[in-house]
Amino acid sequence: MNKQQNKEHAPGKGHGNRGNMLDVLFTSAARICALLVLLIIIAIMASLFMGAWPALRKFGLSFLTSAEWNPVTEQFGALVAIYGTIVTSIIAMVIGVPVSFGIAIFITELCPAWLKRPVSTAIELLAAIPSIIYGMWGLFVFAPFFGDYIEPWISDHLGELPFIGPFFSGPPLGIGVLTAGIILGIMVIPFMAAVFRDLFEVVPPVLKESAYGIGATTWEVIRNIVLPYTKTGVVGGIMLGLGRALGETMAVTFVIGNADRLETSLLMPGNTISSSLANQFTEAVGEIYTSSLIALGLILFLITFIVLSFAKFFLLRLTLKEGAKT
Amino acid sequence: MSRVKHIDRSIYRRRKTVNFLVLFASFLTTLFGLFWLAWLLITLFSHGFQYLDLAVFIKPTPPPGEAGGLANAIVGSLLITFVGVLVGAPVGILAGTFLAEFAARSRIAPVIRFVNDVLLSAPSIILGVFIYEIVVVSMGHFSGWAGALALALIALPIIVRTTEDMLKLVPNTVREAACALGAPRWKVTVSIVYRAAKAGIFTGILLAIARISGETAPLLFTALNNQFWSRSLNEPVANLPVVIFQFAMSPYEDWQHLAWAGALLITVSVLVLNILVRIFFRTVR
Q: Is A274 in Cβ contact with B122 (below 8 Å)?
């Protein structure tokens, strides 16, 4: 302490001891809090890894490839959950990306000025609704409707087709992988639409105006000016949405059916990593069961970490470019 | 000559048609997006309102088949959200201050920014597992404290991000003016910069509250649930999201009705908070 004071005092700064000390105190407090954020991520990694270690040691790499999930015999493999996570996210992206893209175009290019704000706000509010509400609505409203009206049609018409048939056949249960994917898609739409809209709005008006000036249509401006300009950002936005879809828990847990079998059909119940955790974690007995669930969590964390890093990388490249041009 | 004219016109027509089709499609996707919002809100209100009565606010959660309310869950939710923000906000504001004020030449700052963004979008259930590992296991039981900590972890990156953004909006000349008067850095930050960015920082905190008040996943294995009033945060605490989850998944109709009432309560409060955020943010700019 004394040393510090002397050091601060020696150059003869005019603030006096007290001011200097408070300065040091305040800046170090701020620095410590910032480092805490870093520490938390490291601690999350470490604790997940330590928790997952017994399962990883017992099953090794076969944990990733085994489709067996049997608490009774204590045989665990992550394949069903990983498969469910990826498939539901793909369905969500297939629905979410084009729709949110369209919404962003509507808001930035097409919408009359008086309507811009209400539509924007409505989309943002849709993004703010907690996921458990989507899940509950999915369970009580959407799944019965889907099972009664849409799924019979899907299994009658698409179930017979070659190649894609097996994915769309089966009993119309309402709940299942496809329903979960659709609800996930509805959930990520407002989120990605808001990201896309913000991206499209950074395109300098001069660029767009000059294209309009030589007679381009709105669509041509979007395709040849807006999209090339925001390309990396759009990829980043999609990655952000994907990261959200991969980790989403409650909306999926309600409607996916919590089944630990690997099914080809999307109409059948399944499981994702997060829904396995939500459904089984508190009930898990025995070290290996809990540890296997934590190992699932570790896998999810690593996947989302990679996806989010890509998102960040792409979005950062856009802001750098923006900085260079202005 | 006439042939050239003809080709030209067909190209125009094609470009116009493509343009029209694309824009019409984008219009339809917007309707599609708003359609879900409308459907969701309509069912929520029509189901939720009929079960929302005074009992919901004054009676604790009932056993199946009996009348009751959500009072203990509402109070529990308010409590752990409050504690969560109380823990998350100071740390978040200080960390954001470091990134905005003291990190100009810091090499660690970009790393922290990156990590903060990852934390911001990390699956919330993972944060629940993390808190379970380090708090619940070492305490030996589920507790309200663990739930509040999990929520603090979700609030933290939001507050860091908004604080940094808001402090950066404060013009540098203000800082320089204060420094020129001989104010030390901490004083410049606390009494000048914070004061200028007050509404912005507050917006960040509101945003964090809106986000954590609907979070369910991280509470499942931290705060757990409690059918009765909790005496302290040291034991499992009832909270709205987990109660909604358990009641909605249950086969009992009474419970499902209460779940709808709770869902309406949460949605309305989250929407109101978000609208407040918008109003505050408008005063910032």
A: no
